[in-house]
Request: fold
Amino acid sequence: LRTIEAGITRLSGRLKELDLSNLPPLRLDSLERHWKFYDRQLSEWRRELQRVTVPYTDADEQISTRRSAWDDTRAAGVLDAATPALAQRVDQVTAKLERAEQALSQPLDTVIRLGSRASRLQGATQAGMKAVTAAIQYQDSRLLIRDAAPLWEAAHEPRSSDALQSALAGLRIESEFMQEYNAANAHRQAVYRIGAILLLPLMLWLSRRSRKMVSDDPELAGSANVLLRPISAWLVLVLVGVVVTDPDGPLLPQQVALFVALIPVLRLLPQEVFNTLGPWPYIGTALYLLDRMGFLLIGHPFWHRVHLLVVTVLALGALVWLLLRSARRPAEQVHSRIAVAVRVVGWLASLALFVSLVANLIGNVSLAIMLTNATLDSGYLGLALYAGATVLAAIVKLLFARRKVGPLNIVRQHTGPLLGSFGKLIKAAALALWVLITLNEFRILRPLADSLRSVLGYPLKIGEISLTLGNIVLFVLSVYVAFWLARTIRAVLAEEVLPNMSLPRGVGNSVSTLTYYGVVLLGFIAALAVAGFEVGQFAIVFGA
Reply:
């Protein structure tokens, strides 16, 4: 508790020296994570305190009960007719109980004092989070307000020492947060490092095996090609894993990991990405790196805006050129669903960059910075997540692909419906994560999440049943997952498992069909439980 208290006191003192309204959104997000880190630590400490306290409180309750029983016995006059030895023994027992109560009073008083200290710290933590939330809301409110002079009038603006000092102070706080976070999660960090070290020989072994592979399955052959660069694949998994597996951690190591992963990500992108996006992966990555260099000019407002203007113009020009260039492709490529989706996203990004360009010129610097940074960050993060998902799917497919001895050498057959579904699931999860990151970059996620919480929490009453829209959505999603899982398991049984077993005619079909309905039924029960129904009330129906 002293360690947590020292950290909270230090962070509160640092924030008093800073003007939160001048901090960039990235630093504010990191501060919010910092306060949430302390809040989680306090919650865990309180649970530990409660666990340690239970034996003392139980013992105190038992002793109080026994002493009350003896006192009631004496008050009732039962011991008046007892022998002196028995009365003396009762006095001895009562004295021991009193000494035991006195012995317990000190640790219980200590527990109460510690709980009071934790409550005060919890209040300080809540106040810190409210201050950061207010600063984030203030930053969001500035997006539609001109907060600087037009660019052509800003050439003579003096150097801003406040902005530079705020940025440096934010970096110091981030560095302290990283040290505290690593110290508090030392075991998890050690497990991650060990896993990363053990992953390297696995990647080298898969790469060696993939070089010998002969396969008629294009998807499996593509997976083998991804693993022909084992060091890059290992780096992408480890570095992107820092972002994915530690969403509440400090932002500094995540930013460093994404920076180090620049070249491995480009080396691992499949050819179909370049066929769809053209040279944009190279252009977008270079612009992302150039945009990050703007931090060096943060103390010079005019030159910082000029740098932002140059990056925005280059990105806008490159995007429009690539979109017009893609329109001259063959019709079957232009009208494919992926190509249409890519063009829509590309034109939306171009619109965001154009708005950023105009906003920078007229003096709405906050909006310009947000739009350009969000566009380039989301573009690069999308490439990094896709590369990581591709490597992970390739590992799964090559590890579990079924073998068959051919006439000349060993070949690998199709990986089956389960692994195919698993690969799609990995890419769908990467897409969902990219959407969330993109919404957060464009400062839409927070108000959207607040609106969704209020909408999904709206109560609905159907007779005696009280539901919310969130319960209904969870029920629908759970039923959908149950049907997907049932179909996948039935396909695996029907195509992979049962044909290889010596079963009477028709038994395999019966087993796969009954399994399908069994999984659907279990999924329906789970969906009802997730939606808030008392499943025990339906026990007779489900039993039948």
